[in-house]
Amino acid sequence: MRVQKQGVVRLKVKIIMEIRNIAIIAHVDHGKTTLVDKILHATKVFRDNQETGELIMDSNDLEKERGITIFSKNAAVVYNGVKINVIDTPGHADFGGEVERVLKMADGVLLLVDAFEGPMPQTRFVLQKALHLNLRPIVIINKVDKPNCRPEEVHEAIFELFFNLDATEAQLDFPTFYGSGKNGWFNDSLTPTTDIIPLLDGIIKYVPAPLRNEGPLQMQITSLDYSSFLGRIAVGKVARGSIKEGQNIVLMQADGTVKKSKVKELYVFESLGKKKASEVLCGDICAVVGLDDFNIGDTICDIDNPEALAVISVDEPTMSMMFSINNSPFFGKDGKYVTSRHLRDRLMKETEKNLALRVEDTGSADSFLVFGRGILHLGILIETMRREGYEMTVGQPQVIVKEINGKKSEPFEVLVVDVPDEYSGRVIDMVTRRKGELQVMETKGDMQHLEFEIPSRGLIGLRSSMLTNTAGEAVMAHRFLEYKPWKGPIPGRSNGVLIAKNQAATTGYSIDKLQDRGSFFVDPGEEVYVGQIIAEHIKPGDLIVNATEGKQLTNMRASGSDDSVRIIPKIQMTLEECMEYIQQDECIEVTPKKIRLRKTILDEDTRKKYQKMLKTEEVS
User: In sequence order, what are the residues at sequence separation of 6 or more whose Cβ sits closer than 8 angstroms to the Cβ of residue 357?
Assistant: First the structure.
């Protein structure tokens, strides 16, 4: 473009920086977020003496506590004059909805695989999604500093996995890098180096630059961001043309609705933050401020040529749970949001950005049916809500049953268990009792690698009992396979529970007397109410007990008799363990400060009447 001013001709040149868009995919705990840390450090995002800590991208409190990535995040670095947009994705199949949509922004993927464990179920899951989108893969075999690691065998297993997933010729010809994220080196051979520069060179060499599609604007919203100052922010990759600040656009929604809007502000990613931009060209990832009422999957188009991109398809949920208001006697003590309106609004808000989640109203105004990908997916939602100040009760997770070709069908999963040799018999016995079938049995060093096909129902409650039976040595992972015909009844929890008889604080005297009846979930001095589950019974069947009775004080007292009271510490259960533990007539009371197990119907007489009615219905 020529600009003439006072007889001087100047050329106004638009400098276009080269771009690479990469997503990092892997099984949970194979080192994705650590690799992002190393990329940030290698490209001098931080000062040499700056204290940054580890797992910089896992900024959410829940992610820090659990050491897993839950939400995908964007960062951008510049290396040798090339801008690299890095997308860190979750590795857990329960958060597959996150992976599926953010891969739309990438042109290549870094597939990270542990040098000892090799490809795991979630590796297969995320790789399948990437190959379907024709993304160019770079394989990184991480943790080669581990004892017993087997990088050559793992490389062969990865090639076999690519072949089984119908990879194209170009995808099968993947470059491989080896290294240790923890020790800060990656190389195209097993020779250790001092940094990750060979990998950064590999990204620029092997990942294709995004296509520069000329024409009217097209940009699909693949992610949401939120700022208390700017409101909801739409994030996505410009697929065609360019987007400018102040531009009038139309929003094409999944249901066919067309809305006119205007781009108020435009941001591109820089390091761990965002930088304001006046224009973003095709191929770059940007954040758009000023759009009202948009959803993930909507397309931002040119106002004169509105053309929508294909809607993002996400795998169906496989599990459901009943969310209800808290109706226990301790209702409203801890929580800030306790009404059904609060609960419904929050769940509906979650469905906007959590694509794998569905919410349905029930016959009751106080209860909602929530569908998700698995126990961890729903557990993270409940944990997030309780930290925001919500109170609720949640029921037993149920698998979603469908009728296929006139047959009752249920979801099946591939379950992979790595366990020391001496425990393999116990694991096979436990899984087969839950209708699982052994498909593969291999020896990996001193570990047995077992693969099963098991109904999703059989996985509920399996993790805790498997860890107990293998002295905590078993490593479990699973992924959804397909719907298959119903397998029949699966045995649930074999033991009953002890239920509180009255509302008061528990006493050490009562708990001590009841310790031979079961293992307690409460400590002395904790407030309990009628119908609350306070312990696991040592036998099948439930028992109502009085754990609040105090010791009758007299002036006759044997010296030292109170010293003999030895109360075993209570069993601490996480939210996911509680979800796997409860039975159909039980639920979990979740408040910002407490997680309590209870019977759905608190009153004993009403409960017995209801159970009799159910038995009568079954007979008839």
Answer: 97, 317, 350, 351, 370, 371, 372, 377, 381
275-326 tens-digit pLDDT: 888 888 888 888 888 887 777 788 888 888 888 888 776 667 888 999 999 9
Closest CA to 143 of 112, 109, 188: 112
The two tokens of residue 347 are 């769940």
CA 430/CA 452 separation, integer angstroms: 11
Residue 435 above 80 pLDDT? Answer: yes
Fill in the DSSP letter of residue 227: E
- Our separate counts of H helices and E strands in the chain read 15, 37
| Dihedral class, residue 148 (left if φ above 0, else alpha if ψ from -120 to 50, else beta) | left
Structure confidence at residue 556 (pLDDT): 55
Nearest 5°: the CA angle 368, 370, 371 is 150
SS3 string, 355-405, reads: CCCEEEECCCCCEEEEEECCHHHHHHHHHHHHHCCECEEEECCEECCEEEC
Q: How confident is the model at residue 390, as a pLDDT?
A: 93
| Tokens standing for residue 326 | 């808290």
Distance of alpha carbon 535 from the chain centroid: 30
- 463-520, pLDDT tens digit by residue? 778 888 888 888 787 777 888 999 888 877 788 999 999 999 998 888 988 989 999 9
10 burial via Cβ count (<10 Å: 0-12, 13-18, 19+): exposed
Q: At what angle do helices 32-42 and 197-206 cross, to 10 degrees?
A: 100
* End-to-end CA separation in angstroms for the chain: 84
Q: Which pTM value belongs to this model?
A: 0.74
Rounded to 5, what percent of the chain is helix, strand, coil? 25, 35, 40
What is the overall mean pLDDT for the chain?
A: 81
Long-range contact set of residues 324-327: C-beta below 8 Å, sequence gap at least 24: 324/364, 324/366, 324/367, 324/368, 324/392, 324/393, 324/394, 324/395, 324/587, 325/366, 325/367, 325/391, 325/392, 325/393, 326/391, 326/392, 326/393, 326/589, 326/590, 326/591, 327/366, 327/393
